[in-house]
Amino acid sequence: MDNNKIVVFDTTLRDGEQSPGCSMNTEEKIKVAKQLEKLGVDVIEAGFAAASPGDFDAVSRIAEQIEKSSICSLSRAVENDIKQAALAVQKAKMHRIHTFIATSPIHMKYKLKMSEEEVIKRAVYAVEYARTFVDDVEFSLEDAGRSEISFMKEVMDAVIAAGATTINLPDTVGYRLPTELGAMVKELSDFAANRAIISVHNHNDLGLATANTLAAVTNGARQIEVTMNGLGERAGNSALEESVMAIKTRRDAFKDLYTNINTKEIYATSRLVATITGVEPQQNKAIVGKNAFAHESGIHQDGVLKHQETYEIMRPEDVGVIKDSTLILGKHSGRAAFKDKITNLGFDTVTSEELNSAFEKFKILADKKKEVTDDDIRMLITDESLNQ
Ligand code: KIV
Ligand code: ZN
Predict the structure, then answer these.
(1) Looking at residue 324, what is its pLDDT?
(2) Is 139 near ligand 1, meaning CB less than 6 Å away?
(3) d(CA 146, CA 176)
(4) What is the three-class DSSP state of 180?
(5) How many Cα atoms are found within 13 Å in the side-chain-facing hemisphere of 241?
(6) CA of 11 to the centre of ligand 1 (A)
(7) Of 201, 193, 260, 197, nearest to 227 (Cα)?
(8) What residues does the Pyruvate carboxyltransferase domain cover (predicted)?
(9) Does the structure show a pLDDT above 80 at 170?
(10) Strand, helix or coil at 168?
(11) Is 114 exposed, middle or buried (0-12, 13-18, 19+ CB in 10 A)?
(12) Residues 34-77: pLDDT tens digits?
């Protein structure tokens, strides 16, 4: 494997969906999965198949429809979860099972009520069982951020021998500081050497999820687990758009590390997730917030007009943010204005049948709404391409 490539593992549909008020139905999850594929995500964690029949259905339908990203289901280290995960992802072109058990003293003592030996035995069993279904098995040491390094090394040795191909080190409660997390990743990725890919999964409880993710990649992690708009449990997960754009914008500092993300699809993905979940990124959210590229002060506006780079380290168009359009669509708008709008929104490969059908639906919507927004149009076009 190319040692500079950072694998992007998106868990918007699993950990992101665990965020209060963010649950999505199957059709909505399929729309998000298709957009994540277009974005260039390497692995889509499509859900937790054993959690409910609805989750199973969503993972398996996504598995049937996605071709370019690997489809993964989460499972606890128990037989039925792993079996359900395997059944749900089996139709995918590329698939993975992600199994986990906690390794921190506090989780083992109070939650699992298991000894270290029992945890290792269960972890090995889970990985071996998952390997009977798929070649690509990820194992997570839940609460790695608060686990002991020596015990994590024992677990890693055992699960790698059992067939785990990716070892994920979640900072489950967002406890670690970047210097600490970087040191942990360095020690464990040197320990794993080339036996497995080291991954990180950072929560944002102290607002450090992205800083921790970036500290991890500079210390040997080659997979990052992220969500769109930073959705996720409590304060959320590390945001895809932040780490990806930091690695791209500061390629010099990251010594040529790169991702396969098509950054021009970032904004469209963010809007789709916000529209579907109803959870808007805060206005000043890095990369995708409403104000991320807005310049209010006169000095800044003057500077940007003279030379964009005076106050902009990234170009809005690099993440697919389009220049404000004065074209407002309503029931009197014609096909040409509609076509212009969807091209501006980045949908330049829409066929004429899709355009015609979306235009008809736009007219019906425009009769009901005074003004049809860019998000409305994005949803119309996404629905159209899904129906083809
Ligand atoms: O935060 C966490 O530890 C998780 C694991 C299940 C990977 O989401
Ligand atoms: Zn998590």
Answers:
(1) 55
(2) no
(3) 8
(4) helix
(5) 26
(6) 10
(7) 201
(8) 6-267
(9) yes
(10) strand
(11) middle
(12) 999 999 999 999 999 999 999 999 999 999 999 999 999 999 99
Q: How far apart are CA 13 and CA 10, in angstroms?
A: 8
What residues contact residue 232 under an 8 Å CB cut-off, 6+ apart? Answer: 11, 15, 16, 18, 19, 203, 204
The reply to whether 203 sits in an annotated binding site is yes
- The mean pLDDT of 145-159, rounded to a whole number, is 98
- How does DSSP assign 75-119, residue by residue? EESSHHHHHHHHHHHTTSSSEEEEEEEE-SHHIIIIII---HHHH
Cα–Cα–Cα angle for 33, 60, 143, rounded to 5 degrees: 70
pLDDT band at residue 11 under the 50/70/90 scheme = very high
14 CA: nearest ligand 1 atom = 8
Longest alpha-carbon distance in the chain: 70
Residues 89, 114 contacting (CB under 8 angstroms): no
Amino acid letter at 365? L
Q: Residue 114: which residues within 8 A CB-CB, separation 6 or more?
A: 108, 122
Amino acid letter for position 255: K
What stretches of the chain show up as alpha helix (H) in DSSP? 26-39, 53-65, 79-89, 105-106, 116-131, 149-162, 178-192, 209-218, 240-249, 266-277, 298-306, 335-344, 352-368, 374-387
Residue-wise pLDDT tens digits, 287-302: 999 999 887 777 877 7
Indicate the residue type of 308. Q
The two three-digit tokens of residue 251, written as one number: 């390629």
Residue 326 has pLDDT above 60, yes or no: no
Q: Whose CA is nearest to atom 2 of ligand 1?
A: 172
Q: Ligand 1: distance of its center to the CA of 341 in Å?
A: 40
* CA dihedral of residues 219, 215, 264, 226 (deg, nearest 10): 100
- Residue 72 φ then ψ, to 5°: -125, 145
pLDDT greater than 70 at residue 325 = no
Residue 15 Cβ inside 6 Å of ligand 1? The answer reads yes
